[in-house]
């Protein structure tokens, strides 16, 4: 039989065990699947960033230690004018063409962190991954697009050159961040570039004029082709008549021969003294 004293000891032991368990849990950190952890020590001679990243799961966190998570699966982030899942800030990319004409656009980036590079990445920038996206990475995307856009004019951007600009910008961003263990695989425009209204109206007017000019040229070319075809047909017909006339002149009895082939042997039924057959019946 348990007496009151024994029961008290058991209860006290359970409470102590519970407190220890709660303490251990509070001193730990769970790294979510798809992420790795970076452990930072702020106390003692070993203060700094651990070189070894932590896999997903629960990890003990001692006094003066904290764990920062970095996503290591491929993800796509958008820099847009409108609010998104990361906040209400306007993150559109601004740039200009080679005349200094300002314009803006929304851009999406697809990237992935090498799990083994996460500690060094944090040690270099001292930023979480979201902070990297909002700061250094976005700045590099903007700088790369601006550098490539200023090599062309707005007409080239509007007529299809924007894809060349974004691909060259991708190469710039990818080359830089590959050195930090971040693989940037895509950089894409979201929607269309936002041009100033007055420039957009001028471009559209020019495009319309160019289309009308092309249409007029096509109609002229068609009319010329039809006229040349008619001239060629007339020349062909005249040449045919000339050849026939030359043949008849060289063979005068050919007409009589064709008449004989078609004559039924009857004289024309004509009253009066002028009725004669079409062919000459006298022997030659």
TrEMBL record:
Taxonomic path: Bacteria, Pseudomonadati, Pseudomonadota, Alphaproteobacteria, Caulobacterales
Superkingdom of the source species: Bacteria
Domain Band: 29-227
InterPro entries: Band_7
Name the UniProt record assigns to this protein: Stomatin/prohibitin-like protein
